[in-house]
Every structure is written in C-alpha cells, then in structure tokens.
Amino acid sequence: MKTQKLIKLLQSRNFSEIKNNWSGFEGGSVIFSKPIEGNIYLLFIIWEDHSKALIAKFYDQRFIGRKEPAEVMFSMSVKDKKDVDYLEKFLQVPIG
Prior knowledge:
By secondary structure, the chain is α+β, with helices and mostly antiparallel strands. It has one domain (3-91). The protein has two helices and five strands; from the N terminus they run αβββββα. Strands 1-2-3-4-5 form a five-stranded antiparallel beta sheet, with helices on one face. A hairpin with a 4-residue loop joins strand 3 and strand 4 (51-57). It is globular, with a radius of gyration of 12 Å.
C-alpha cells in the first residue's frame, strides 16, 4: 500500500500521528497510534517504502515514539488496505 494512501486512511480513522524519536524504529518513520484498551495500543509504523502494524503495551502513552514498548504482542507487515481491515476484524473493534 502506498505510504500516502495508508496515512490518509489512518487519519480518516482517527489515529494520532506521533513523531518518532526512538532509535528502535528505523529513521524516517512516522508512527500512527490508537489505544485499544488500557495501556495497549495499535501502532502503524510507516516508512517511505514499507509499513508495519504492531499491538504493543506502553506504560504511558507519552512513551510511544520515545521508548521501547514494554511488550509487543503482535506484529505484521502492511501491504494493502485488506491488511488494515483484517486488523479491525481481528481486534473485533472498529478502528474508525
């Protein structure tokens, strides 16, 4: 999925854009985040040529993009809109 299309899709589904200041994600990435429950978040890490989705636990929302997640529970490569739709179904909660 082209980067700009994915960014527009996530913005339309009310994800928060977070600046990446953590060295654990490759440079030049942008992070989009949405809380799932408690301190667990659905993240999309977007680079110029590829994207990745994570379900991860952070002790504080302010740590996203700054520190390593306390736990990564799920990770997958995002290639097209079907992958985003799959996550919505997998989580059984609307992402929008």
